[in-house]
Predict the 3D structure of the following.
Amino acid sequence: MGRIITIGREFGSGGRELGRRLAEELQIEYYDRELLTEIAKHTSLAEEYIRNVVERQPHSLLPITIGRSFTYVDDYAFKQAQAVYQAQSKIIRELAEKSDCVIIGRCADYILQDKKPLRLFVYADMDSRVRRCMERRSPGESQTEKEMKKQIQTVDKNRARYYEFYTGLKWGDKLNYDLCINTTDVVIKEIVPAIAKMLG
Amino acid sequence: MGRIITIGREFGSGGRELGRRLAEELQIEYYDRELLTEIAKHTSLAEEYIRNVVERQPHSLLPITIGRSFTYVDDYAFKQAQAVYQAQSKIIRELAEKSDCVIIGRCADYILQDKKPLRLFVYADMDSRVRRCMERRSPGESQTEKEMKKQIQTVDKNRARYYEFYTGLKWGDKLNYDLCINTTDVVIKEIVPAIAKMLG
């Protein structure tokens, strides 16, 4: 059986680390930023530009109900975001076709639904996420815990908007995932072998 | 490490079967109705009576905010329900002390929180739950799918009320569980070995 694992994750939950370690443990491919690099190659758009577009919602003023009927909208930024999403979807499908893999975010669960991927969602309580983010600050970063919390909320809000815009589904709603993993007070490294055993 | 596994579950999700099979696979104790029998022995209340009280919310007209301040309430049925809950909590703690086990429902996740049980929540989409319930009807039962759906909603509403009343937490909210398992289109028997491998 092909193993395609998609991972949705709350910011600061360690979902990306979990995905990376899981791919290592299962010896399958892993994609997140790399995926964007691939997209950049295919669309001739600069990687940084795409990352910016992709991380933000397609159009901040566009109501979802209208946003989903593309013909009603004539907006350059919106069309750009659409193009990036389409290119990205194509790449995700190609990669999943090529070999077993773990894909982080990017609506991969939805894009690959016909392949019946194992859809994980990784989450944790706010205190635990703030703690995780504070520990991983780069030397240049100096956010307070309060600022970090705000940043986490903003990132998650954007992720939720992005996901809901393209899938019509509620981001983080457990019904959209096969398995939801709580990483509150958990050392990611320690739980990965157990998860891999389950999926292996 | 002691393994105490608590399972919350939506009606029709197969959570009870999952728990029973998981206990078998891990060769540990399993409690659900048996637990009530134990309670009956300790409290000298008839098992059937307790089951009825426990399955319903403590007092149907009592707002939760008032209900949690026991001193404001003087109501026989409410006091009865409290007594049953207390007896039940005591038994659950005793059983968890005695040996590793799987405990279904009954707020065991909350009652045993100091023992840090592994808290599972089992859920599925409504169609899948209706299908599962229809397949398991006893020969005497003749509900239509529509009636079954209504019954599922009623049972879950009562479970949610019961859980929220005694724990102050939202039943089914993924933050209250370590692992949430979606059993939509899943054959329980087939996924249990994998879950057991993870927990073993």
Remarks:
- The radius of gyration of chain B is 17 Å.
- Chain B touches chain A through 16 residues (CB under 8 Å).
- The CA atoms of residues 16 and 184 of chain B lie 15 Å apart.
